[in-house]
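Researcher: Here's a chain I'd like modeled. Treat it as a single chain, no partners, no ligands.
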Amino acid sequence: MKVRPLLRFWPDLRSRIGVYIAVLALTLLANAIQLVIPLITGHIIDGPIADRELSGLWLPVLGVLAIGIAEAVALWGRRILVAPVVAQWEITWRSRLFERLQYTSVAVHDSWESGQLLSRAINDLSQLRRFFAFGIPFLVATPLVIIIGTIVLTVLQPVFGLIILIMAVPTVATVTVFEKRYRTVSRRSQDTVGEITTEVEESIQGIRILKSFGRSPWAAQRFSRLSRRFQGLEVRKAKLDSWFWSVLILLPTLAQAAIVAVGTWGVVQGWTTIGTVVAAVTISMVLRMPIEMLGFLLADALMALTAAARYWEVIDIRHDITDADGRIEDTPDVGRYTGELDFADVDFHFADTDRDTLRSLDLHIDPGQTVAIVGPTGSGKTTLASLIPRLQDVTGGSVRIDGTDIRDLPVNEVRNLVSVAFEDPILFSTSVAENVSMGAPGVDEDAIWQALEITAARDFVERLPEGLDTQVGEQGLSLSGGQRQRLALARAVIGQPRILVLDDPLSAVDVDTEDRVQRALREILPDSTTLIIAHRPSTSALADAVAVLDGGRIVALGTHEELLESSPLYRELMGASAVTQGRTAAVPAGRSSAGPAATGQATKGGAQ
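Model: Modeled as a single isolated chain. Structure tokens:
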């Protein structure tokens, strides 16, 4: 059995190894001390009973009582000591896994089913906790008890020890065959649990779609197929278990029968005593439990080994987005930045393909300037937005803030400098206030209300049953799509970020509300550099400049009005009413229609 995945936990175990050794010792004591009782029984038969001296019973009886008390104390001490230790280890392992997932790129998350990650974080770590609390102590103690019992039998009568040794040969062979087969089935079973978890999670999150399209039977069939596969694997595990347990129960029984037969013959022949035979038979009965437990312990060990391997698969995911020195900085300092943003000859492709999503892209945005990005579906708009907070990293060129490559800046500093609002708003199962203040931890209630005012969310929040303290439910599904989007946008603007990235964050609200929010952003956050993924002419019209993205390159750059005149692709993207809407949209005072830095930076990306 390859135990390296379990051995990798040694650094965590080492800090409490003294306590854990005490647990192992108490486990061994509680199990091995039972072997003394058969010896006392044999002594009673060959001594006080054979000699008919009742006075000689007191000391052996007190000895049996003392052994029972010692066994109970040892079991009590083992449980008291092991529970807090393994619980702390489980917390450590779970925290490590959670932290690993927090700093893993979005692309890696997208490559994993969420159910597989959940099953590793919950089921597998619970399996490991149980194994370290119960499995390992008994897995260490059980073979030692069997060895000690065999030695005692050999000392009592060598032929009895020989019988046990003969029984060990088929036992070892059975264990070898069982281990290979059970390990494979166990891995497939635990992976299937992850698939089932994913299926349940998706069906709950998509319950509105399933009901709307009448696809609940389809979802039930998918779940049923997975359940039947899991059932088949569990039945196969049970069959392997049953064969293994049958052999482990049969062999000790045969050994007992052999000891009784040989012992009886020995008593008749005079080379052993009745007390010795009774002691030997009783010891073989005591050994039956450890031998039979080997089946359970081995199965538990194999499941723990699989759980450990699955755990380390996640932990071993390389931190592909880290600080320049490989660490992750926890103390961001963002006050020194102006928010100048540059995309310099940027290339990007996803890990599973060589086709560039972005290629040779150049774009400069001055501090405080607002630039809208428009383009057909699949042109790379969302990918471009994800590069700024380093949700993805460029595969060529660089993204720079104030002239510094963001890969040379602390990750958390970049992410405190940049705020993002996505088209698909993600809210957490907590209050409105906590969801909004997540964008700037520690802000007061006035700042929260101001952010809600900017995003036209104050009115509906005031009407909620408990106002800011209203719980929004899982993913905020108790709110409408537009309400969720406005809360997510409030979370993005509350910290008055230097750079604001808006990936069509108001697609679910009406044009008038969007216009009101956009104007409020321009007035309240005049110093924030803003990049907007836009789909509406009204949004583009409010930007200082518009960049048209097609095929991963900037193919046109200018104001909304200029592009309506010069770019057929832009006119097509904006629709038939774009000219009318664009020309009548008001441009707020204090903003240049297209700053020189914006209008002169499309040389590599394509023709204007």
